[in-house]
Each structure stands twice: as structure tokens, then as C-alpha cells.
Amino acid sequence: MHYCFAFDTYDPTRGAQPSGGSRIAGGENRIGDAPTRSSMQKVKELHRTISTTDKAKTVATWLRDKKAIDIIALDVRGISPITESLVVATASSVRHAQGLANHILDKVSEEKLEYLGMEGSQQGSWILIDLNDVLVHIFQTDNRQFYNIEGLWSEGTPIELPFHADD
Q1: Cα–Cα distances in angstroms (integers) from residue 20 to residues 26, 39, 51, 77, 106, in the given order
Q2: pLDDT (tens digit per residue) in 100-109
Q3: CATH class of the domain comprising 52-158
């Protein structure tokens, strides 16, 4: 069974701050307890609803705005058991990757979109941001080529982005 944890704020120095301290969706349950109907309603109220495709396009635009390279988005519904779409981008340096990740988290908080976690931000060679239905991969060039996420999910349908890859 999977549980959805709501995060109210993101502080770059401390990371995501769960709503209600150690409670789910406003403080009714302890972490690990099964969510109740009212706590799940509160989660919905905390987060703005946006389609998966629109969220992937929005995240790709945020990455482009901060000079990410070679941005792609794939719809992997029916292929992946853990997400509905992927956004993959390349950063020019570790510091750039960390800046991209922080920008995404700031925008997610500002737009009140769901955020579940982030991995790899300390090393910056491959940062994974889990936005529930959208997974964001930020790579250094050599790691992107080595892990070949696009090849792994080649059965996915490309999502047309609102800009050209060359922009």
C-alpha cells in the first residue's frame, strides 16, 4: 500500500517540510498510518490539480528557463508502474544541476504542486525529483549517456514541449 504525504513548504537549507510536523495532510495521522478519507481530502485541498502532460510541459519550461540542455518529456503511462511521465534534462555542471533542482522545488511550492521527494542533490551528477505523476531526471552529460533513460523508456510517447529543443 502506498501513502501520499503532503509537503507544505520547501526550504533549500532544510528540504521539504511536512505539513503538521510529523503528520499527514494537516495532522490527523502519524506517518505510516493509513490515511483517512478526510486526510486525503485535505491533501487534495493543499495541492493544485493539473494534468500529467501539462505538469511535464510546465516542468520542462522551468528547466529551459534556467538553461537546462536537451530537455525531453515522455509519457510512460501503461509502461511504468511508478509514474505517468518523465522529464529528462542535462545540466552543464554540478552547481547548475543543483540550481535546476532548487528552482523546480521553489516553483512546485509556489504553484502548490505535489512533491514527494528528491535524491542525488548533494552529488549533483544525477538528481531525481519525484512529483508523483512526473519524475524529473537532471543529469550531467556523461551520466545521461551512461544511464540512457531515453533508451530505457523508448516505448514511451514523446510529449510535445511548448518550445524547440534548440531554444
Answers
A1: 5, 12, 27, 33, 20
A2: 999 999 999 9
A3: alpha beta
